Amino acid sequence: MRLIDKSGNKVTLDDRKIKVQIQGNGQLAGMDNGDLADVTPFSSDSRKTYKGDMAVYVRRTGREDIRVFLKLCVDGKEVESTYVLSGGR
């Protein structure tokens, strides 16, 4: 995921803490921001972005395609959730 401002520009100098909750037939496998100095455990459900970027990894919990909602909180404030659909292995 990527932090953007109201004009759609990437925000690289104002990193934010993001908390993720998964709803659906997947579970949070981990989060990473690419910052080698960040010692937050990979499996944590919250992490700060690094230069505006963050990766969220979702693990399927069954054999069917992944259909989940990512409920996001940025600095403690809930933002719009994102629907994710993925098929195949």
Structure description:
A hairpin with a 2-residue loop joins strand 5 and strand 6 (77-78). The protein has one domain: Immunoglobulins (Immunoglobulin-like). It has no helices and seven strands. It has strands spanning 17-24, 26-32, 46-48, 55-60, 66-74, 77-78, 82-86. The two termini are 21 Å apart. The mean pLDDT is 89. The strands form two sheets. Strands 1, 3, 5, 6 and 7 form a five-stranded antiparallel sheet that branches. A two-stranded antiparallel ribbon has the order 2-4. With 89 residues, it is mainly beta.
Produce the secondary structure layout.
Layout: E1 17-24, E2 26-32, E3 46-48, E4 55-60, E5 66-74, E6 77-78, E7 82-86
Antiparallel strand pairs: 1-3, 1-5, 2-4, 5-6, 5-7
* CATH architectural label: Sandwich
Q: Low-confidence spans: pLDDT under 50, at least 5 residues?
A: none
* Gross geometry: globular
The total number of structural domains is: 1
Work out the number of β strands. 7
Distance from first to last alpha carbon: 21 Å
Which CATH class applies here?
Mainly Beta
User: In terms of structural class, how would the helical and strand content be classed?
Assistant: mainly beta
Q: Brief overview, please?
A:
The protein is mainly beta and 89 residues long.
Which properties best describe this structure?
mainly beta; 0% helix; 89 residues; Immunoglobulin-like; five-stranded antiparallel sheet; two-stranded antiparallel sheet; single chain
